[in-house]
């Protein structure tokens, strides 16, 4: 069976093209977020897996859950996802769409693991340094990891900057073993 990301990619690219054509990135981001929230609800998930419910009924249910401000394009997207039985791929569709959007807007996500909580000034300085290094706007996601002992470990894409005490100790250990 194909991986979910492989299934999700064409849908995410199609949504991205629609959003790009109209300049409605925020609207599509909000819609995909609301769809994911709706699908996560037990009642909706039960309806989605019920073989007695037709695709048109499930589409109408999802559109009604989304509210009155659903565009015709969004209704078509929901219908397409339901008719092709791709509701399980919605989290990946959203993730891929957001990645395409960030790329278009020149934004990178930085996963920052810190041994201790960072205050506003520290985070601002760190983000500023990362923006200079990567020459793009940085959206930080910070979490506390007590196992780092001290310092921070930053992952931006496939690049990792390990400034943690734990990482430095591991590097020193490796260097000493080579001697």
SSE inventory with pairings:
Layout: H1 4-22, H2 25-40, H3 42-49, H4 55-66, H5 72-83, H6 90-105, E1 107-114, H7 120-134, E2 137-144, E3 152-156, E4 159-162, H8 165-178
Parallel strand pairs: 1-2
Antiparallel strand pairs: 1-3, 3-4
Q: Brief description of this entry?
A:
With 179 residues, this protein is of the alpha+beta class.
How would you portray this structure in words?
This protein has 179 residues and is of the alpha+beta class. 63% of the residues lie in helices and 14% in strands. It contains eight helices and four strands; from the N terminus they run ααααααβαβββα. Strands 2-1-3-4 form a four-stranded mixed sheet. α1 (4-22) runs antiparallel to α2, α1 (4-22) packs across α6 (90-105) and α4 packs across α5 (72-83). The chain is elongated. The termini are far apart.
- Strand elements, count: 4
Helix content: 55-70%
**Number of distinct helices:** 8
Globally, the shape reads elongated
Task: List the quaternary state of the chains.
Answer: single chain
Strand order of the largest sheet: 2-1-3-4
Order of helices and strands: HHHHHHEHEEEH
Strand percentage: 5-15%
Residue windows where pLDDT falls under 50 for at least 5 positions: none
* Radius of gyration over all CA atoms, rounded: 21 Å
Instruction: Calculate the mean pLDDT score and round it.
Output: 88
User: Structural class given helices, strands, pairing?
Assistant: alpha+beta
Largest sheet: 4 strands, mixed
- First and last CA, distance: 49 Å
């Amino acid at each position: 069976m194909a991986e979910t990301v492989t299934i999700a990619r064409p849908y995410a690219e199609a949504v991205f093209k629609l959003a790009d054509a109209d300049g409605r990135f925020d609207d599509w981001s909000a819609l995909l977020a609301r769809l994911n929230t709706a699908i996560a609800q037990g009642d909706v998930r039960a309806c989605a897996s019920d073989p007695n419910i037709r695709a048109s009924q499930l589409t109408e249910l999802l559109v009604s859950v989304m509210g009155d401000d659903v565009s015709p394009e969004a209704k078509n997207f929901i219908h397409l996802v339901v008719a092709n039985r791709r509701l399980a791929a919605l989290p990946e569709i959203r993730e891929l769409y957001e990645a395409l959007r960030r790329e278009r807007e020149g934004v990178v996500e930085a996963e920052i693991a810190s041994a201790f909580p960072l205050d506003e000034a520290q985070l601002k300085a760190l983000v500023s340094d990362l923006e200079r290094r990567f020459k793009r706007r940085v959206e930080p996601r910070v979490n506390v990891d007590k196992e780092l002992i001290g310092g921070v470990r930053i992952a931006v894409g496939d690049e990792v900057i390990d400034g943690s005490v734990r990482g430095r100790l591991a590097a020193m250990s490796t260097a000493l073993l080579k001697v």
